[in-house]
Amino acid sequence: MAIPQHLTKIVATIGPASRSPEVFRKMVEAGVTVARLNFSHGSYADHAKTIAMIRAVSDELDIPITILQDLQGPKIRVGELSDQGIQLVEGQTITLLPIDRAQATATIANGITIDYPYIAEEATIGTPILLADGIFELRVTALHGNAVDCEVIKGGCLTSHKGVNFPTLNLRLPSMTDKDRQDLAFGLEHNVDWVSLSFVREAADVQMLKSLINDYGKSVSIIAKIEKPQAIANFEEILAIVDGVMVARGDLGVEMPPEKVPIIQKHIIRRCNENGIPVITATQMLESMIQNPRPTRAEASDVANAILDGTDAVMLSGESAVGAYPVQAVTMMTRIAAEVEKDAKFMNYPASRTDEVHAISEALHVIADVIDFRCIVAFTASGYTAILASKERLKTPIIALSPNIHVYHRLNLVWGVKPLLLDQEVSSFEMVIEQVEACLLGRNLASRGDRILIVGGIPMSIQGGTNFIKIHVL
């Protein structure tokens, strides 16, 4: 395969519209590098079949495809309502009652049940409550027993099982439910490459997931989904221990005023870039392409601005999972990325640590400013060297050579990196040169006479052992 013409990675959520091998193959050929499996939907049988299909297409095309397992996290929902739903009228008083409490009481007039038992203990007068992704808004006016009375601020027809958000409350909910733990076990058994954690509020949530993964004897990279105000407040502590970040703009825009989300997005991307942490920008990027073959100009600008901000990846949700034009949506993202990257001037941030590895990665930028290279080749056992090379945001493609198949798959999420799988670890500098020549020339990724820049560590088995940089002519 040729070196990709765009450096920003594309995440596509796999669903009914994209689950067939024929459609998924076209999406990969159009630019998909990461397949997201949303564990809010689908059976284990469905997910197992999808994972097998993804790996088969990956092998067929000889392209690494990263599998991202997205855990659902806790969800608070409205209980059963009539088939017609209930009409919320602005100014009306409505009562919210926990489901378990409601089952033991007589039916209440103007009442809605929710599956959260602590609402009356945690809410105060004036607490805002959002329903159905923020479409409807209530405000608490009175507390009595286990129930709360609310004034309807924004009304409409509410139907069963819609989501409930309490943007100002730090709820007594774990970041992982029993379902998430079962889903995690399934994902690890099927060798997913990344796991994204929902409902993250503090670093301890990420640490808990790390401990669970260690208990299974696995090593999987973790993405923290930033979708709660508490996660924004504790972002630096979360960033210090996580492997990747997702700006989950949909939930974030419900939990916080929408006008704050663009600046938060830019801040998160910048801090991730400064620390060499891969970051995904997600939700509603090409939303209109669920139903239309072309995006709006505003959507195209949204994708372009995320790329200009320095995001590693842009994500499709409903567009690729249930939309009518999944391949076209991927093609459009690829076209936007390729066009924007031509003229983009990406920020180059100082090294975040004072050690040999970071010093060598900083040198890449200085050397590439002087000499035009066909590509940068990163020898890496853990993926760290390639990630640091990506942090420099050079427009020169990065070829990551690794003998570890898990690293090979994971690195396809990282900006500008094309992973290749080595047959063996290298133990000498001479073997490095031999492997580089064989891989690049054998795959038509470069030609004889091309100048390349090689970075890595000898011996290769030492994680974080980057200790050389070489200019080489094939």
From TrEMBL:
Report the family membership.
Belongs to the pyruvate kinase family.
Q: Which organism is it from?
A: Pseudanabaena cinerea FACHB-1277
Q: Could you tell me the EC number(s) of this protein?
A: 2.7.1.40
One Pfam family this sequence matches? PK_C
What pathway is it annotated to?
Carbohydrate degradation; glycolysis; pyruvate from D-glyceraldehyde 3-phosphate: step 5/5
What's the superkingdom here?
A: Bacteria
Q: What gene is behind this protein?
A: pyk
Q: Which UniProt keywords apply?
A: ATP-binding, Glycolysis, Kinase, Magnesium, Metal-binding, Nucleotide-binding, Pyruvate, Transferase
* Annotated Pyruvate kinase C-terminal domain residues: 358-472
Q: Which part of the chain is the Pyruvate kinase barrel domain? A: 8-330
The name this protein goes by in its record: Pyruvate kinase
Q: Report the cofactors.
A: K(+); Mg(2+)
- What's the catalysed reaction? pyruvate + ATP = phosphoenolpyruvate + ADP + H(+)
Gene Ontology MF, one: kinase activity
